[in-house]
Design a protein that fits this description.
The complex is a heterodimer of chains A (about 750) and B (about 150). With about 750 residues, chain A is α+β, with helices and mostly antiparallel strands. Chain A has 3 domains: about 180 residues, Aldehyde oxidase/xanthine dehydrogenase, molybdopterin binding domain (Aldehyde Oxidoreductase, domain 4); about 170 residues, Aldehyde oxidase/xanthine dehydrogenase, molybdopterin binding domain (Aldehyde Oxidoreductase, domain 4), CATH 3.30.365; about 300 residues, Aldehyde Oxidoreductase, domain 4 (2-Layer Sandwich). In chain A, strands 12-13-10-22-19-20-21 form a 7-stranded mixed β-sheet, with helices on both faces. In chain A, strands 1, 2, 3, 4, 5 and 6 form a 6-stranded mixed β-sheet that branches. A 5-stranded mixed β-sheet of chain A has the order 17-25-24-23-18, with helices on both faces. In chain A, helix 14 runs parallel beside helix 18 and helix 15 runs antiparallel to helix 16. Chain A is globular, with a radius of gyration of 27 Å. With about 150 residues, chain B is of the alpha+beta class. Chain B folds into 2 domains: about 70 residues, Beta-grasp domain (Ubiquitin-like (UB roll), Roll), CATH 3.10.20.30; about 70 residues, DNA polymerase, domain 1. Helix content of chain B is about 40%, strand content about 15%. Chain B is built from 6 helices and 5 strands, in the order E-E-H-E-E-H-E-H-H-H-H. Chain B has a 5-stranded mixed β-sheet, with helices on both faces. The relative contact order of chain B is 0.17. Classes of the chains: A alpha+beta (about 750), B alpha+beta (about 150).
Chain lengths: ~750, ~150
Amino acid sequence: MEKSNNIQSRRSFLKVSSITGGGMMIGFSWLANLIPNEAIAAAVASKDWIALTGFIKIFPDNRITILSPNPEFGQNVMTSLPMMIAEELEVDWTKINVEQGDYDTPRFKRQFTGGSQAMRTTWKPLRTAGATARLMLLQAAANEWNVPVAELTASNGFVKHKASNKTLSYGALATAASKLPTPEKISLKKNGEFSLIGTPQKNVEGSKLVTGKSLFTMDYKHEGMLIAMAIRPTAFGMKLKSFDATDALKMPGIKDVFEIQVYKDGYVKAGFDTRTFNNLVVVVGNTTWEVMNARKKVNIQWEAFQPYKELAGTGNNKREDTIPAGLESSDEHMKQMYEKQKVQGKILRKDGDPEAAFAKAKKVIEKTYSAPFLPHNTMEPISCFAHITEEKAFFVAPIQIPEMMKQSITTNLDIPAEKIEMKLARMGGGFGRRAYGHYIVEAGLISKKMKAPIKLIYTREDDMTNGVYRPSYMVTYKAAIDEKNNVTAIHIKGGGIPENAIHENRFPAGAFENYLAEGWDIPSNITIGAFRAPRSNFIASAEQSFLDELAEAIGKDPIDFRIELLKKAKANPIGKNNEYDADRYIGVLELVKEKSNWGSPKNKNAKRGVAAYFCHNSYAAHVLELTMKDGQPVVGNIVSALDCGVVVNPEGAKNMVEGAIVDGIGNVLFGGLRFEKGVPMQKNFNQYRMIRMKEAPKKIDIHFVQNNVDPTGLGEPPFPPIFAAFANALYKATGKRHYHQPFIKDLNKS
Amino acid sequence: MIQLNINNKVYEVDASSDMPLLWAIRDLVGLTGTKFGCGMAQCGACTVHVDGTPVRSCSFPVAAAAGKKITTIEGMTEKIGEAVKKAWIELQVPQCGYCQSGQIMSATALLKSKPHPTDADIDAAMQGNLCRCGTYQRIRSAIHRAAEMI
């Protein structure tokens, strides 16, 4: 991570160079003040400023290549980020070649996929890259023809002088342009003036994806490459004691069996160095099947570990974590969480006098919600290629956060930063899991030991049982209602293993004079991490289910009730730190109300539920309809309204919203990893139920609020509210409210 | 040595007879369009056609495929396969794309046996193919679109 000491500077500085054989290459740096996103707040807390870079190559024959700096895991940034550059560059998009940039954070400045941040953080920098190149090409043409720049126009990769009817291609101008000084003053198109941004564009890798081209780490091949797999403890709370590889070494194709230690003793972990199993037994051989078979022959003894401490954090922000010992079970977790709900938690926010309001209440509604651990279950299991030699450390890695891997690779592999070369393979799904790059260190250690190119592969069982899970949560919502049916106080109390999910400054905070939020947490040795819309993905499910129940209890329509509260919060906001914009929140509710014909549904047989949420700077509302068939819910049509500001590529955006909806329905209905004595009880898809074709919605109708707000995020925001839209529809269809995820447990009981 | 006919080309592979066809195709032949997802015929990412029938190659012994006609995503070049791929692009089905080889193989097999499948036919035929990104609706639409094109 390159950081600038000169944080006052807002001047962009370009790096322009010639390409051998003619043409130009433009890189640029841009300093932009960015608001840290809550999802990576911990990771970026030390940098108020992030520098970013874009990258354009123009060849003499007018071929133009745009590099996409961010890793791609299905969110379609490899299309949408280059679109922003192309918009200002004024080129024919259909002729642009897009390449995935390699790991080169000093050049690209920002290489991070997560927190729904790609559009928001690159919106100005990438367009500036395009605009700068265009200005330099225009100047080069002006010099060539000896006419003022103002008389020239740039479009579709050509500069034209109308008066003299002259035209030159960018390719012809590029070499001259590359020798010009960088323009100081760059103005960008205003939102609403775009010709490419806002138009639906197809995925630049679409044809490769449907023909089986090798794009993924799993597919990577290299001369002399060996296959490696690791054996990890069978339970959280256990560690390696000893092993005997005699039989495994006799198996065909096996090269070696040895132990690796992932993180060095005393290594201070940064934000995404997860608490993975640290001592692993590795089996290396010629082919995957041979390694799989030999792995079963290794005789390993595990032992329970004692509580231990480890240092984590960066800069002045270091902390000591204590990792508890013990073999944890899901049933025990539930008991512990219910116990915590009985005692005072840490006060997160308090407005007015909630105690008095509850004492005076005519009626109190109190409901408790819970959710289990979730594995990410990316379709491509974890894998990494490494080839460590004296000259360089070469990796092909599926990693969401390349910019943050330097410390871990250099320290744990003893490799100087300048020797690291990393290809950012397309990821077969991420959802947060691939923010935790311990597998890059694992692969590097194995290659170092073998002195050979190796590909580390996790089986599905390895992937599911050695995860970095979404934590397990519980929360209780309580409302005080007076004799006039007004809600006079809200109390939210909850926590989780090992963190709570409460966003105390989000709606409905700000709408109630008396408000109390308190939280607690329970330490655990089960590894947890970011999972699409961390924390929001649980708290929204509870909050939006509770608001539905509350609206019903006081005889109000659930959409009108939310709008009424938001209007109240806007006119007279309670408290100071409310995070949301009430108008934009109301905007998505009104849009979904209109588009779903909320008052007069078309399908009279289906029951409907609504939910909305704000997170990652964007707003989402869904209306979901379902019917019951043979005791099971069948999801019909879904209408969604989103406000994420300007939508760069509506085609990719809609696909991602659809994905978030399906993901949410799958998780609320089926998702959940159970533990017994530290052992994950589901290990593969025969035991872990995922949403399948039959359960997918029949139709998803997506509407974006049309505005000129700079883009915010979209990968996560549509995900949290779909859980409650489903829950609220399920209640309407069955007459029974569901509080404990996954709902399939209760549905199968009744 | 086991002889495999993959996409109309004959390969000699040095594999133990119990090696799943998937690993023979990926590790020994070197065709990586067929994906590994679960290793137990639960996710469909490894779907190939053996004598025209879709099978989960991760759970299909390589010896059982000897002498049969194996088709992988790389060999999906006949009329129905081309229509399916075209529909997949037209309707922009993939997100991460990892499962899509398997989805396309299952969809092509369905269209071969049922040129005009209903939603229920699609649900049944595609139930064994997981998509973690949630592209199911687009897959359903793309199968209908491919049926129109054929």
